[in-house]
Write a structure and sequence with these properties.
This protein is α+β, with helices and mostly antiparallel strands and 390 residues long. Helix 3 packs antiparallel against helix 4. One of its GO terms (cellular component) is efflux pump complex.
Length: 390
């Protein structure tokens, strides 16, 4: 009977195994697999963590960031503006004399002319005959004056003999003087007519460039005909730059500028020669007049942009990647003495190929995060890697 007991136990175990349902057998390998995954995950996490100085607490990996210390450099303060191009001194040319029919137009827009050069010729046949008539009247007056002088000379010779009284001498002297005066009047009338004839032609008031022409041969012109030609005195041009009220206060006559006409790639050096003393109450802008030398690419009436150097100053210059912005404005991240990220609000100045100048908020001696600032948060611990600003 002692040998029968173990056999009974083994039979019971077999009976129990057989009684296990098939569904429960399928869950056993799934549970085992889940346990293995949890063990592997725990091992991976333990490999990422390092023991703290105390021995138990884990710490996260500290990201490395590139920082720069730009210092302070001389930066030109530039005012950007747009405006129209025009002749610096525009001269409208019209009819000075009595006018008439235009016989010839001698210039075209774009021609250079000298002072007094004839631009258009007016028909003058009537005026020419009037001048000839006046010239003939001068000869008549001179003949009368010559005769009066001869009569006076003969009378003076007869006075000593008693044939002519002193009263006759006085009368003949007056006749001679009147004849000479008529000569002078005729000469003055002829000179006046010749001056009028000279004013018939339309002439350039000064040397310069012809901009427009508004007259054709055969046209009848007069004092009310308006402007027939427009000229730029000396060919000098200018840009009427529209500048905001704040920027206008920083400009002075003599400031240098670079003017770029729309549609072209060339830039032309200029200089501010006048700053508007008034502000437009509607646009809150004023005009800075920039004088530029003549160039065929500068066409009056065109549009242009200008960069005006209003001065210079010392400021930090940062690469554009270092400057961040949000609803509160522009800012950068700096790394403090504890190697923690700190936000610093700044005011941005001129943006150029060299970078972004900082008007306020930085001294330039801070450690400034150059890149990856968008992935950092204030107070975060970082590992700074210093790079000297170029």
């Amino acid at each position: 009977m002692n040998y029968e007991t173990p056999l009974a136990s083994e039979d019971a175990a077999l009976v129990d195994d057989a009684s296990i349902q098939p569904g429960r057998r399928r869950w056993l390998p799934i549970a085992a697999g889940a346990a293995i995954v949890l063990v592997v995950l725990a091992l991976w996490l333990s490999m990422r963590e390092k023991p703290a100085a105390g021995g138990d607490a884990p710490v996260q990996t500290i990201p490395a960031v590139t920082v720069i210390s730009p210092g302070s450099s001389a930066v030109a303060r530039t005012v950007n503006a747009t405006g129209s191009l025009a002749a610096r001194v525009e001269m409208p040319v019209g009819v000075v004399g009595e006018g008439g029919e235009v016989r010839q137009v001698l210039v075209q827009p774009g021609d250079w002319v000298r002072a007094g050069q004839t631009l258009a010729v007016i028909e003058r046949s009537v005026q020419t005959e009037q001048a000839r008539s006046l010239a003939a009247q001068i000869e008549v007056a001179r003949a009368d004056a010559k005769l009066a002088q001869a009569q006076l000379d003969r009378a003076k010779a007869l006075v000593a003999r008693g044939f002519i009284s002193q009263a006759d001498i006085d009368q003949r002297t007056a006749t001679r003087d009147a004849a000479q005066a008529r000569v002078n009047v005729a000469v003055a009338q002829l000179a006046e007519q010749r001056a009028r004839n000279g004013r018939l032609d339309i002439r350039a008031p000064a040397a310069g460039l012809v901009l427009t022409r508004g007259v054709e041969p055969g046209q009848i012109v007069g004092a009310g005909s308006g402007v027939l030609f427009r000229m730029a005195k000396g060919g000098e041009m200018e840009m009427l730059a529209q500048v905001s009220e704040d920027d206008l206060a920083t400009l002075r006559p003599g400031n240098s500028a670079m003017v770029k006409p729309v549609g072209g790639s060339e830039q032309f050096a200029g200089r501010v020669w006048q700053v508007s003393p008034v502000i437009d109450p509607q646009t809150r802008q004023g005009i800075a007049r920039i004088a530029v030398s003549y160039n065929a690419a500068i066409r009056p009436g065109g549009f242009a942009s200008a960069a005006i150097v209003s001065g210079s100053g010392q400021s930090a210059v940062l690469p554009e990647s270092a400057v961040q912005s949000d609803d509160k404005g522009n800012y950068v991240y700096i790394v403090d003495g504890k190697n923690q990220v700190e936000r610093r609000d700044i005011a941005v100045g001129q943006v150029s190929d060299a970078g972004v100048s900082v008007k306020s908020g930085l001294t330039g001696n801070e450690r400034i995060v150059e890149t990856a600032g968008a992935f950092l948060t204030p107070g975060q611990k970082v590992k700074p890697e210093f790079r000297k600003a170029q």
